[in-house]
Structure formats: structure tokens, C-alpha cells
Amino acid sequence: MDQKTIDRINELARKSKSAGLSQEEKEEQARLRQEYIAAIRGNLRAQLDQIDVQEQDGSIVNLGEKIRRR
User: Fold this and answer.
1) What distance in Å separates the CA atoms of residue 5 and residue 45, rounded to the nearest whole number?
2) CB of 36 within 8 A of CB of 6?
3) 37 neighbors 30 (Cβ within 8 angstroms)
4) How far is it, in rounded angstroms, from Cα 9 to Cα 54?
5) Whole domain around residue 58: which residue ranges?
6) pLDDT of 22-36, one tens digit each?
7) What is the CATH number of the domain that holds 22?
């Protein structure tokens, strides 16, 4: 996610609190928020894929794989 998109999300949030948003702006805000959430989830999954944990039985499991199995 680029800084321009994050700035636009923040701009719409400020405008929403002060003057309100048009229907088009509300739709844009919802779309941008969904993109932001998807980016955050992707980053978290990438981080989890880099972490290995040792189970009590001594086996080593990748945390990303372990969470996806649930």
C-alpha cells in the first residue's frame, strides 16, 4: 500500500468527521479501507510465514502453516 492511498484514507476520515461525505466518497472510503485491510493481512501472513515454533513434542512447525490449518 502506498503512502498516497493511506493519505487519502486519512483525508476521507477527517472529512467524514467534520463535513460529512458524499455517497461517492463513502464508497471510495469503503473500498480503500478494504484494500488497506487486505494489505495488513498480507503483511501479517508474510511475517507468520517467517516464524518457526518448536512444539512440546520437539517438532518444528511454521507458524503461518499452523494457523492456516485451523
Assistant:
1) 21
2) yes
3) no
4) 40
5) 3-69
6) 999 999 999 999 999
7) 1.20.58
CB 39 within 8 A of CB 52: no
Residue found by looking up cell 480503500 in the block: 32
Q: How many structural domains compose the chain?
A: 1
Q: Where are the beta strands (DSSP E) in the chain?
A: 52-54, 60-62
Residue 63 pLDDT more than 80? yes
CA distances from 38 to 52, 53, 57 (A): 23, 25, 35
Q: What's the N-to-C CA distance of the chain in angstroms?
A: 28
pTM of the model: 0.75
